[in-house]
């Protein structure tokens, strides 16, 4: 067994004009594939630890030292991207009543949640991700991580994530990360977020 690059759950141009087909090809076929290849290369050195990346990254100290950083980077890169593709859709979706109520209770309103998420995505310096997670107390929290670090390593369950590496937006949005963040909100797959929220609670 090895980790396999999952197919996109929609066509490469399905998220146009918000996320362009050229970006989706590069991002999925090249960048994500590279994380998969490098994660497999690391895992092959230690067949005894298995291939359950979520379990391994939930306890990074358990990963053999010689492949620890490679798995944080590439195992995390695989998990983050596999989730990211599922978090977008060309279809019109909306937060469930339960999630909407939790967002209102935590942030005050959906608009305030969007502002907090946008701030996290905008101010993450360099490469990383912005997240909406369910934290250890079972509460919603907006956070961000550097590089391909996953909130799973902090004991948090990601339910929404946005890749803010330049490779995710530079083809279309150039240096204007805020426009990409705004566009992302037009293609969020709330059905998937609702499902992850229900499972995380
Ligand atoms: Fe990416």
Automatic annotation (TrEMBL):
One Pfam family of this chain: Sod_Fe_N
Phylogenetic classification of the source organism: Bacteria, Bacillati, Bacillota, Bacilli, Lactobacillales
Cofactor(s) the record lists: Mn(2+)
Protein name in the entry: Superoxide dismutase
EC number, as in UniProt: 1.15.1.1
Classification via InterPro entries: Mn/Fe_SOD (IPR001189), Mn/Fe_SOD_BS (IPR019833), Mn/Fe_SOD_C (IPR019832), Mn/Fe_SOD_N (IPR019831), Mn/Fe_SOD_N_sf (IPR036324), SOD_C_sf (IPR036314)
Keywords tagged on the record: Metal-binding, Oxidoreductase
Molecular-function annotations in GO: metal ion binding; superoxide dismutase activity
Record's function text: Destroys radicals which are normally produced within the cells and which are toxic to biological systems.
Domain Manganese/iron superoxide dismutase N-terminal: residue ranges: 5-88
Domain of life assignment: Bacteria
GO cellular component: cytoplasm
Domain Manganese/iron superoxide dismutase C-terminal residue range list: 95-195
Binding residues annotated for Mn(2+), in chain numbering: 27, 81, 163, 167
UniProt feature coiled coil, ranges: none
Catalytic activity: 2 superoxide + 2 H(+) = H2O2 + O2
Family per similarity comment: Belongs to the iron/manganese superoxide dismutase family.
């Amino acid at each position: 067994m090895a980790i396999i690059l999952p197919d996109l759950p929609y066509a490469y141009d399905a998220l146009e004009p918000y996320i362009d087909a050229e970006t989706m090809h590069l991002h999925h076929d090249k960048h994500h594939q590279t994380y998969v290849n490098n994660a497999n290369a690391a895992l092959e050195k230690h067949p005894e630890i298995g291939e359950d990346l979520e379990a391994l990254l939930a306890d990074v100290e358990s990963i053999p030292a010689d492949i620890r950083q490679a798995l944080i980077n590439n195992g995390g890169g695989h998990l983050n991207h596999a989730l990211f593709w599922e978090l977008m859709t060309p279809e019109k979706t909306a937060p469930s009543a339960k999630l909407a109520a939790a967002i209102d209770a935590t942030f005050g309103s959906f608009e305030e949640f969007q502002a907090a998420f946008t701030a996290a995505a905008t101010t993450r310096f360099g490469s990383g991700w912005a997240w909406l997670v369910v934290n250890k107390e079972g509460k919603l929290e907006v956070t961000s991580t550097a590089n391909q670090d996953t909130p799973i390593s902090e004991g948090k369950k990601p339910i929404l994530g946005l890749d803010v590496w330049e490779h995710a937006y530079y083809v279309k949005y150039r240096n204007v990360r805020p426009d990409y963040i705004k566009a992302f909100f037009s293609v969020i797959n709330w059905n998937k977020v609702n499902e992850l929220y229900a499972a995380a609670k």
